[in-house]
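Hey all, sorry for the wall of text incoming. These are the two entities for the joint prediction.
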Amino acid sequence: MRNESRVYLGIGSFFVLILVIYFVWSRESTGSVLLLASAGLGLLPGLYIGWWSRRMQQRPEDVDEVAPRDITGVVGQFPENTIFPFTLGVGAWLVGLAFVFGLWFAIIGLGFVFGAAIGATLESKRASLSERENRV
Amino acid sequence: MTTLQEPLVQTAGVVEHERKAPGGFYKWITSVDHKVIGKNYMYTALTFMFIAGAMALLIRTQLFNPDGHVVSLQTYNELFTIHGSMMLYLFAGPFAFGGFANFIIPLQIGAPDMAFPRLNNLSYWLYLLGGVTMLFGFFTASGAAAFGWVAYAPLSSAPYSPGPGPDLWIVSIALVGFSGIFTAVNLVTTIFYLRAPGMTMFRMPLFSWSMLVTGILILIAFPVLTAALVLLYADRHYGAHFFSVAGGGVPVMWQNLFWFFGHPEVYILALPFFGIISELIPVFSRKPIFGYKGMVFATLAIAGLSTGVWAHHMFTTGTVLLPFFSALSLLIAVPTGIKVFTWIATMWGGQIRFNTSMLFAVGFIFAFVMGGITGVMLASPPIDFYTHDTYFVVAHFHQVLIGTTIFAGFAGIYYWYPKLTGRFLHEGLGKWNFWVTFIGFWITFMPQYLLGLRGMPRRIAIYSPTDGFTFLNRMSTVGSYMMGIGMFLFLLNFIISWRRPRPAGDNPWDGFTLEWATSSPPPAHNFHSLPAIRSARPTWDMNHPEHADAVPAVTGGDESAQ
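and here's what came out:
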């Protein structure tokens, strides 16, 4: 994980550098605030990942030579076909259109959004219970 | 849910649980497979590209004659606005980070899918619905947005741009922006957490590196745009005064906010295509890339620098720190130059195969260098003052953007089409596609440089016969029709491969990276078995153990046999 955090830290520290130069030189507020936020966006995940990388064992994808015992086991759980992202997308779209055509679009849209939220939650629960290792 | 075991150990790794998979249209709507979503993105983006390209031809037809009467002045403004918006927001970006990245990244790093498959599906629908929303503007009584793709205040304020068209534009860009942010989160997470064992960061293919950096840039840039759009909407409808002088606001703040998104956006569009070129030039030159780490650091340097140069679009506002932005803009030529040097050095002394894909890649280098050099010129304020808002700038950014998105993008399509579909595109027709587009490209945009130097402003619908712009404009229009024919040849090629498929096999180009180690098209969850990853070219190491550039493997690749 060390290199992942360095990617973020590298970009973040570069922003700190140009933020200092830019602010001292121009005293312009919009750009300085934006650069400050960008520096935060770079440093925050960088420091977090770096903090974790010191506390965890090296993952198989971080080592040059992989031992056979490192490459067994579960990669992850991946969902199957589901309608709810589409429902959520349509809901978000209708809420967006409400800003142009009137509030009533948002009422329909929010219906879709909440429907998708409830549906996706129930679906996830059902799916994870169907996995052998998740059964109690 | 599907639980995946590591494929190296358990060859039949996918433990499907018993549920009948849906078929047909419902399957397409509900699929969370990154390959299906990636293809959806590509087809949608190409459709938007053809629509926006047709608008470009209309624009050029209007400018063929002085005092042209093809479209009305208002329609002309709508056309160039929606042409630019569609090409930048709906085609170039999503084509790369939604289409190519979605399809290729999990395959290249040996992952079964993206990290958040359902989020991936959601971002496609936000993109599609948001994109279509932008076109709704043409069906409203007052027409679509007509303030240019940059939507400068105060032109974009309610008094100057009334009606629902601009609002539809704002909503559309916001939805597409969210879709981009979700995709970026997905990409960065996938690359950080789902790499195959042994795929260290510095063994990742350069396309994956480019997409990682693009993802980070999206996360920096798009939220700024979304925030700016919210402010703009508040100005238009809720009587806020962020960008109106009357209420104490600052119109130039819109430009600052917009270009803080807009300039990284240019590199969000360019970096993925740099990555594509960095993938296929080594493959078709039969050499490893020259200076892998140099390329990685150049990519990171571009990411940093591109965020610090936003105000070079605002030199003529008189409110920006000229030396700072000029210096950083000139500096960005250094990492870009490293990249161009690396591509040429990779080809140097290689056994180059000039098939369609490679032709497009080399064409990209020509086009991009031309656009890049004029970019360096524009980075110096004295030249920018002279050429700002003229056709010189138009020619510059079209050469950069068409160079990257069309030439490099098509290089990528011809390169990965066998992986996408298991079929070849026709080589002969592909070469026609390249040459017609390429020649048309130069005929279109070289006259525009001259027009710009003679003082033709951009975004004008008519010019006078006495201006002396007529001949160059006609040349440019003829070139643009040639490009249109070139695009049509691509469509033809596509249809031919659809009606008369020519099977390609799993690894037709003898590729280097992991995506060529699986079948074409790849199975559900991508890999039945993975080669051992000991270098940046795992598939090459597996297929050519005698030439392998990796540390010699003790067991010949099958580590489970130890």
